[in-house]
């Protein structure tokens, strides 16, 4: 991901206020496998149906936020629990 460092420096989780970083390729691959299985739901209790090409994760590794067309979607209800997705 070519996320602007300045943007990453100011973004934070809307719930925990934790800073965010780019989700690693390995974890993104694992997350997308879980999405393909139909076992991932957002905090808004909606199934996540589409694979993610990019994502951000809180520094503590608890919450994941999708990036769509280069735009981080930092909405609480669109976030994904890393634990529920089997990443933690």
Specify Rg, calculated over alpha carbons: 12 Å
Low-confidence stretches: none
Largest sheet: 5 strands, antiparallel
Helical content stands at 10-25%
Report the principal-axis shape. globular
SSE series: HEHEEEE
How many individual domains? 1
Structural class based on helices, strands and sheet pairing: alpha+beta
Count every helix, treating DSSP H or I runs of 4 or more residues as helices: 2
Beta-strand percentage range: 15-25%
- For the residues shown, what is the average pLDDT? 95
Instruction: Give the CA-CA distance, first to last residue.
Output: 22 Å
Give the strand tally: 5
What report would you give on this structure?
Helices cover 22% and strands 20% of the residues. It is α+β, with helices and mostly antiparallel strands and 88 residues long. The protein has one domain. Strands 1, 2, 3, 4 and 5 form a five-stranded antiparallel beta sheet that branches. The protein starts with a helix and ends in a 7-residue tail after the last strand.
């Amino acid at each position: 991901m070519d996320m602007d460092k300045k943007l990453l420096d100011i973004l934070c989780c809307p719930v925990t206020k934790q800073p965010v970083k780019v989700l690693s390729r390995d974890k993104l691959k694992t997350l997308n496998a879980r999405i393909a299985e139909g076992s991932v739901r957002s905090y808004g209790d909606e199934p996540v149906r589409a694979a993610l090409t990019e994502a951000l994760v809180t520094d503590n590794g608890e919450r994941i936020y999708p990036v769509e067309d280069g735009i981080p979607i930092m909405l609480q209800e669109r976030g994904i629990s890393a634990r529920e997705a089997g990443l933690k």
